[in-house]
Amino acid sequence: MRAVRIHRFNDTPRIEDAPTPDVETGEVLVRVQAAALNPLDALVVSGFAQHFFDIRLPITLATDFAGVIERVGSGVTQWKAGDQVIAWADAGVSGGLADFAVVPASACVALPDALSAAQGSAIPTAGITAWHALFSSAKLKAGETVLIHGAAGGVGGFAVQFAHMAGARVIATASGDGLALARDLGADEVIDYQARDFTTAVSGVDVVLDLVGGETQSRSYSVLRPGGRLVSTAMPPDEAMAKAHGVEASIFYAKPYADRLGDLVAMIVGNGLKVVIDRQVSIDAFDEAWARQTSGRARGKIVVSLS
Ligand SMILES: NC(=O)c1ccc[n+]([C@@H]2O[C@H](COP(=O)([O-])OP(=O)(O)OC[C@H]3O[C@@H](n4cnc5c(N)ncnc54)[C@H](OP(=O)(O)O)[C@@H]3O)[C@@H](O)[C@H]2O)c1
């Protein structure tokens, strides 16, 4: 079967012929239709992700994918061959950028009829990160103001919609065509970060969702109200700076919370939210998808089709 793998860290990920995996007890074999990339894939390739995951080489990329169950292992009762699923694999074990992928049965949720496999594959990491960073970590409430940095990217595309739907006032930073996208997704105000210094445009916000890190994060403490909350997905915040500004700051790390993914998918479908796809390319054009993902300029998610 075709698989996009690396054999050592800092390899260039390439399509190669790989053995079709066997299912064991409690696992399912999925015929993959679509797999979505995340910044995490670049961290797996560089080896940095070893800080968080026990990475087994060679490894197939893409934790997030969707397809049809081909075969189930013994003890699996919740799925049968032919079921359409969204799967969220452990980044250390093996991903879904292949014709077939094996995951624990518990790592799958049903793909609703309303979503294509491409849309389903785009949800796990980005959707769960957006939701839990905003509501479990930052505890964003209706009526509060949230500044979302990186609003046009994979996580940002979901975060803007979730915050808007929850009744928060959303201020988004983006650039170029990302500005119109953020507005379209529900941002009340957009700031072109390449043209304007956001620290002079915004003050007294309740929450900053930092999806960018670096200077963007360190300059964000000053726009929070006293007692405000900064949550980053990009890098650990500076506790001393947070204390000096009288604000709370934390980092959110997503794990494959498939148990929460089903509810999130139902919520996205039930509320007619958009799954923003930057581009969908065939596995034969993987290099194009990889270049776009690693450019850091994505507008929503980058999806690779396998069927
Ligand atoms: N901790 C976790 O569990 C977890 C989970 C998911 C993601 N993450 C991290 O969260 C971050 C976002 O992930 P993602 O999937 O959304 O990435 P992504 O899809 O690659 O998003 C990149 C977006 O960031 C925007 N951007 C870059 N610099 C910016 C700046 N200074 N101000 C505003 N926007 C800026 C880009 O827009 P322009 O083209 O306009 O620059 C682009 O739209 C990454 O650092 C990723 O590693 C962490």
Describe the structure.
This protein is of the alpha/beta class and 307 residues long. The chain has two domains: 2-123 and 275-305, Quinone Oxidoreductase, Chain A, domain 1; 126-251, NAD(P)-binding Rossmann-like Domain (Rossmann fold). The chain contains ten helices and 16 strands. The protein has helices at 39-46, 117-121, 124-137, 154-165, 177-184, 198-201, 214-218, 239-244, 258-270, 286-295, and strands spanning 2-6, 14-17, 27-36, 59-60, 64-72, 84-88, 100-104, 108-110, 145-149, 169-174, 189-192, 205-210, 224-232, 248-251, 277-282, 301-305. The longest helix is centred in the middle third of the chain and has 14 residues, at 124-137. The two termini are 12 Å apart. The mean pLDDT is 97. Bound molecules: NADP nicotinamide-adenine-dinucleotide phosphate. NADP nicotinamide-adenine-dinucleotide phosphate is lined by residues 38-39, 125-126, 129, 149-150, 152-156, 173-176, 178, 193, 211-213, 216, 233-234, 252-254, 296-299.
